[in-house]
Amino acid sequence: MAGAVRSPVHRTAIAVRPVLGLLPLRNAACTCQSRDQQPSQLSTPSSNLAPSRNFTSCTTSRKTRNSDSWFSNHSMHHTMATGDGVASSNGGGEGSRRSLFFPRRAVMYVPACDERKVLKTTTISVDSIIFDIEDGVAANKKDVARKSIGAAIATSRRDDSQSSLSEHVVRVNGVGSGLMNLDLREVFRSCDSHGVSPDAIMLPKVESVEHVAELDLCLSFHRLSLPPLPLFIMAESPLGLLHLHHICHFATHGTRHLRLAAVVFGSDDYLASIGGVRTDSGAELAAVRQAVVGVASANGVAAIDMVSTNFSG
Prior knowledge:
Layout: E1 29-34, E2 41-43, H1 68-71, E3 74-79, E4 107-111, H2 115-120, E5 128-132, H3 142-156, E6 167-171, H4 180-194, E7 200-203, H5 209-222, E8 229-235, H6 238-242, H7 244-253, E9 258-265, H8 267-274, H9 286-298, E10 302-304
Helix pairs in contact: 3-4, 4-5
Domain HpcH/HpaI aldolase/citrate lyase: 105-310
Keywords: Lyase, Metal-binding
Region (Disordered): 35-76
């Protein structure tokens, strides 16, 4: 995973809420998450790269086509990127269509089992779309979600789609769930049947180097000779944050089938794990958020931040 790419500064239309105790960042972003059980999220970082697409912003000064109904009753969270642009390794197959330097300025999460929301992605122009089969999908819908990944990616990549050039990421269930290997097997089987491949994998609830190593081992059975696949890891517990630097270093230098692309801070699961209470200011998480930014920056990858509820669009 290459480091961040520096480029001239450009003014952004994205409004980012200041957070107590956080140092100024080169890039900031916002992400919206559905309030219902199956979330769809959109992050739109303010990048120092010149914008190449129109994004729906917090200030609503720019809107993507047909975005009003999509963003109703959604919440907002910020993401913090540690560089001006992130270099993405090619994933092989369809994944190899990613350019060497791929800015992840806007990230939308969609439950893979929800056909209506998958179809809606074709009308929204974002950098990355994450098809979810973890927390955004009910337990009795996970098998449907796994088998729908190939069709979801193929639909989103249609030539007439606003999302045809987006990066398509799959969020699997965590190692501790016991579902990860089944997820990977069915996801790649579904993708093969539609002639597509995910551009990256997101692994939630990462707490140790061993979790990344297990994912890497599982991928060795499903992607035998393909280039490393970009990896997003989610730190959602005190243990995950304690080990985060070692996890990032291993995911960058110690894996054969993966290469670290981003670190995601799961604030809600983190607060639940420590018995914490969420406040409007978010001050109780300021130190932890800054720590995530520091570790991500030290490892040359993007940092994706916590959820808040002050988005309207």
